[in-house]
Request: fold
Amino acid sequence: MPPILHIDLDAFFASCEKKRNPELEDQAVVICMYSGRGKDSGAVSAAGYGAREYGIHAGMPVSEARNRAEQAGEDIAFLAADKDFYGEVSRRIMGIVEEEAAEVEKASVDEAYADLPAVGSYQEARERAERLKQRIKAEEGLTASIGVAPNKLVAKMASDRDKPDGLTVVEPGEVEEFLTGMEVDELHGVGPKTAERLEEFGVRTVEELREVSRARLVEAFGEKRGVSLHRKAAGNGETKLEEQEQEQLSRLTTLGENTRELEEMAPVVEQLAEDVIQSLEDRGWRYSTVTALVITTDMDMRTRSRSFKTAERSLERFQDTALELLEDFLQENPDAVVRRVGVRASGFDKGGQRSLSDF
DNA sequence: GCGGAGATGGACC
DNA sequence: CTAACGGGTCCATCTCCGC
Reply:
């Protein structure tokens, strides 16, 4: 089995900011997504290693992160996320990866799987991975952690083993040993909910999971998830790299204030729809399904969607449909109060037909 | 049974 | 007030419906 690499850029957003502003070099950094409500309303998008020491992590409310920073008495920099900038840095680094690899699958802005041209051994793969790390450091000033393993699942977990600036090689014969002692939620794709359900089975570790029969897992989790859990426990992962096709495109925002007045949400929804349609137009895609997304004040996400028989590209059609769906939702949920709204396009027709401006 | 559509939930970054 | 809370994507499951 030829080795697969998983490249993970360390504390990527924080590292991008430090690179842009060297004064931050020795400071703990927190990257935030602000909602625009209060001064600290928002969530932590990413925390640099310095900030993680104080228990600050992605997904945490900014206000809580501020409390922790204060308690620690540490001067931590809180910065607003600049996704466009991170995207640019990402593109350049992915370019380096593409030069060093035979095939690359970008998994997110800061992660990629890669497969190497004609490597004969894991030793050789290790050397190539070292070289890739060095190039990223020399050319972009960022460190990466790399996992090398027989499949994507193990490569991903291996890149996580030694961070930052790590390199972990797991040869085929070492997979079992690598997984030994791990808790189930350390398996990529097994989150808190699944871990909790497994605990009811008396399963906490990967070794314990491996002892559960495939049939029982399927019975408890359904066909796909059951089989997938069974495979994961054995360190059996996908070996094929393929760039995943985008299948949906959404925009979501937090309202100035909670409301259930359609008129207050309408301009926001129309703007979000415009953004989505613009993106589709840039790509030359048409949509056939429109979804209205609502996050209520209790943070519950609700959706309403409608599909058309043929793919559309009209902005008005999209806006009108989204607003109708939103209206339906409000009518069916007289107690719901809306905090955030969003729209989504899916069911793409990426085929030939381009917009008129292309002719 | 099998498909598509629609709604929801889990997971990850 | 009994906590606080972004934006985005993918995948799986369940239900319903027409066939």
User: Anything to note?
Assistant: Residues 12, 45-46, 58-59, 107-111, 188-194, 225, 289, 291, 301-307 of chain A lie near DNA strand B (CB under 10 Å from a C1'). The radius of gyration of chain A is 23 Å. The longest strand of chain A covers residues 248-259. Confidence is low (pLDDT under 50) at residues 353-359 of chain A.
